[in-house]
Structures are given as C-alpha cells and as structure tokens.
Amino acid sequence: MKIILIGANGQLGSDLVGALAGHDVMLAVQPGATGQSDAGSRYVELDVGDPDQVQAAVASFRPDLILNTAAFHRVDDIERDARLALHVNAWAAQQMALICREADIALLYVSTDYVFDGAKRAPYVESDLPNPLSAYGASKLAGELLIRSAWRKHYIIRTCGLYGLAGSMGKGGNFVNTMLRLGRESEQTGKPVRVVHDQICTPTYTHDLAQQIARLIETGRWGTYHATSDGQCSWHEFTREIFRLAGIRVEPAAITSEEINLPARRPPYSVLRNAGLQALGVDQMRDWHEALADYLKQAGALAG
C-alpha cells in the first residue's frame, strides 16, 4: 500500500514509521520541522493547512491512503483562542477529505477521548453521543463531522493520553517523561508531585497504537474506531505506577481538577472501549500496566 504519513516525526508518527515498514510511505512533516542535519533526508515538508500542497503530494505520489496524525492539541491555549485548532483540526481535515474523495483514496484521522463529556461513567463506545467540554474537543469533533460528511472512505481513530519514545513535540514532552522528571526532583528536594485523581481515562503507548492502526488499515473497513490501552486509571494512579516501576520513592499528592484550575475543562471519565476493533476481531491493545512497563524499559527508565 502507498501511504502519505503526515506528522511522521511526531510522537505517534515516529512509531507509525516502523509499524508501516512493509508499505511504500511518504514521510511528511510540517515546514521547518526538519533541522539542518535533516537536509536531504527521507522527510518531505508538507503544510497540512495548505490544500494545494496536499493535492500536489497526492498527484505526484498517488497514494492509497493519507494517514493524518497532525493536530494542534495545546488544550489550555486552545481554550483561550481556538482559531489555529479549528484551522488544523477541522478545516484542514475537511479539505484533506475532499482531496481524498477527488482522488478516490482513503483518509485516516486521529481524534480524541475529549469529544466526550464524561457524564456516562462507563466506557464509551463508538456509537455514544459526543459532547465535548473544551474548545479542543470541539475542534476535533468538528474535524470528525466534516470528514464524515465529505468522504465515506475514512478511518477516524479516537484515542487517549498518548505517550511515546519520541515525546510530544507540541506539548514539550509527554506525561510519563514529565512525571519521571518531577519524581526524581522530588526525591532530591522533597517538593510534592501533585496529580489529579478525579479524571479517569486510559493512557496509551504510541507504539501499541501504531501497530493497531497498521493492522486496521489492512482490513479496508472504514469507520470510527476507539483504540486505547485496556483498563482504566486516574492520572494519580498512573503516576503512582510510573514511580513504582521506575523505582522512584515518592508518593504523589492527589488533588482535584478544581484545585488545579486549568482553563480547559477535562472530562471526568473518558475511558474508551475498543468495541469496533473487537467486532472486527483485530483488537490487539495491551493492558495499560503492561504497555507502561514496556515503555519505561524501552526508555531505559525501568528499575532493575
């Protein structure tokens, strides 16, 4: 299969490069994302917000699928000003879907658990009604709706709390790495590590998600799918497990979302059930405990 992978140097994109090794893949990144050392490298610069550039890439490469991992996801910044999020997460996604329709190729779009409000208090399945609490969630839901209305050959993947070896460039590091840093600092200084205990979700290792996406696209079964690690935890529980596995002797302090008082509201419960993948018989996502231990081992942070 010929694939244009947009965001190939990002946290998820980097793992997709390996997962898609058996395919012919154009590795596309945002202009300026490659450094001087990348001159003449395998990366192709492509502005996801410029439909003319996307159309030219499709015309020259003739892919079977565009796999779009690009997103603007600085959640609290978006709550103050949603223009860039709407441009990247919604408008650009719609334009890409229209280009795919014209070329008769498939599109894969990565969405989020933040499209739900958490009121259900039971794992969300793909048919549950979205109701985002934040501007970020609204921008991703808008992208979903615009893609569905534009072109039937699409995969929409909702996932949650991504962490991977490449880190999260758009956020200055992923949650696991941040907690490892804060935990080690706390061992030295005694400064408490404060983590919310009233947001329940399922943090997901990008290596596992990349392998899952690679398997799904082989099915040719378009539609909306949830793809997260198995199980559920609060961010506080997740942090305790990070510290335990990394041998950090610190007990994180449990706080409420109200205490941290961030600009954007988060869903109190956004666990996703991989019902669509299970129905296809292709769900291969591991329990979050196993995935986290593997990540820390690969990152060299697992206690001996």
- In total, the number of strands is 13
How far the N terminus sits from the C terminus, by CA atoms, comes to: 41 Å
Instruction: Specify Rg, calculated over alpha carbons.
Output: 19 Å
Question: Assembly state here?
Answer: single chain
Described by strand count, sense and barrel closure, the largest sheet is:
7 strands, parallel
* Beta content: 15-25%
CATH-derived architecture of the largest domain: 3-Layer(aba) Sandwich
* CATH-defined topology of the largest domain: Rossmann fold
Number of domains: 2
Could you spell the SSE succession in H and E letters?
EHEEHEHHEHEEHEEEHEEHEHHH
CATH class of the largest domain: Alpha Beta
Helix content: 40-55%
| Class by alpha and beta content | alpha/beta
Taking strands numbered 1, 2, ... along the chain, how are they ordered across the largest sheet? 3-2-1-4-5-6-11
Low-confidence stretches: none
* SS field, number of helical segments: 11
Mean pLDDT over all positions: 95
Global morphology: globular
CATH evolutionary superfamily of the largest domain: NAD(P)-binding Rossmann-like Domain
Please provide a written account of the structure:
- The chain has helices at 11-19, 51-61, 75-80, 83-103, 135-150, 175-189, 206-216, 235-246, 257-260, 275-280, 288-298, and strands at 2-6, 24-29, 43-45, 65-68, 106-112, 154-159, 162-163, 194-196, 200-201, 204-205, 223-226, 233-234, 253-255.
- With 304 residues, the protein is α/β, with parallel strands linked by helices.
- It folds into 2 domains: 2-163 and 205-228 and 273-285, NAD(P)-binding Rossmann-like Domain (Rossmann fold); 169-199 and 233-269 and 291-298, Alpha-Beta Complex (UDP-galactose 4-epimerase, domain 1), CATH 3.90.25.
- Helix 8 (235-246) packs across helix 11 (288-298).
- The model has no long low-confidence stretch (mean pLDDT 95).
